[in-house]
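TICKET: design request
STATUS: open
ATTACHED STRUCTURE:
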């Protein structure tokens, strides 16, 4: 079952077949190129914050996070938010594979800092119950899209997606509506690495759809480091931040939003 109209702008596709979004909508999915925290990638609203010698956000100055570096493709608003909701709640796997390719330029950024070793790509896991209900883990689909793109760009065949490397041991309440402290508490200690030898001494790149406070990525990173991972990076498609609210959020909420934002 392939859509015949673009799920974002509702225009009918001019060519049949494998389109997931129309060309115009793809072009509108823009990366964030403004100033950002050098560690967690939080976009800054002004150039001033980035002009200091070490442009770090408040959380990173307090060393809140267990990952070494995180980057997001764009802001969680507008069309990028729409396509992420489509991917998640309409199980649009092919769209997810294509969206994963957008992470490839970020891959190059983090690859600069860890030499020649080939990292493990680890999707942020859903709880088994939620994955079964949804039929797939959107983070895993994004990781597979990224892996395919990096492999075709760099000719690397063995960029492995280690989808079972990390487990979510508890079904948690959605992070949306929780305070920063509650978000960290909600995901504290909920991830485990069933086979620590699979990550020992390795560089791990976590992949997820949305990063909000960073609590989820940080909790994953802590488990991986306790299991012996050397470095842990995080790549997400979108960064949600109150500095850049979604202007279309004043519309009545999509029904899918009730389920949304299960991540931190
Ligand atoms: Zn469109
Ligand atoms: Zn930061």
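STATUS: resolved
RESOLUTION: sequence designed for all positions
ATTACHED SEQUENCE:
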């Amino acid at each position: 079952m392939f859509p015949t109209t673009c799920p974002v702008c509702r225009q009918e596709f001019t060519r049949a077949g494998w389109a997931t979004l129309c060309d115009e909508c793809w072009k509108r999915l823009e990366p964030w190129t403004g100033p950002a925290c050098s560690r967690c990638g939080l976009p800054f609203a002004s150039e001033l914050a980035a002009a200091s010698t070490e442009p770090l956000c408040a959380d990173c100055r307090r060393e809140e996070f267990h990952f070494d570096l995180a980057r997001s493709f764009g802001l969680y608003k507008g069309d990028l938010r729409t396509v992420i909701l489509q991917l998640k709640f309409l199980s649009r796997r092919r769209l997810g594979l294509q969206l994963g390719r957008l992470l490839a330029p970020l891959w190059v950024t983090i690859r600069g800092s860890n030499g020649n070793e080939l990292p493990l790509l680890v999707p942020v896991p859903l709880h088994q119950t939620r994955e079964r209900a949804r039929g797939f883990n959107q983070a895993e689909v994004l990781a597979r899209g990224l892996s395919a793109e990096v492999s075709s760009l760099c000719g690397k065949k063995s960029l492995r997606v280690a989808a079972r490397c990390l487990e979510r041991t508890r079904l948690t309440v959605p992070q949306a509506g929780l305070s920063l402290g509650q978000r960290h508490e909600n995901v504290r200690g909920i991830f485990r690495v069933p086979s620590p030898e699979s990550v020992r001494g390795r560089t791990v790149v976590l992949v997820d759809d949305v990063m909000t406070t960073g609590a989820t990525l940080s909790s994953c990173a802590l488990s991986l480091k306790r299991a012996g991972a050397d470095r842990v990076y995080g790549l997400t498609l979108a960064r949600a931040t109150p500095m850049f609210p979604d202007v279309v959020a004043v519309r009545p909420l999509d029904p899918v939003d009730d389920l949304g934002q299960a991540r931190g």
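CLOSING REMARK: Residues 45 and 243 are 7 Å apart (CA to CA). DSSP finds ten helices and six strands in the chain.
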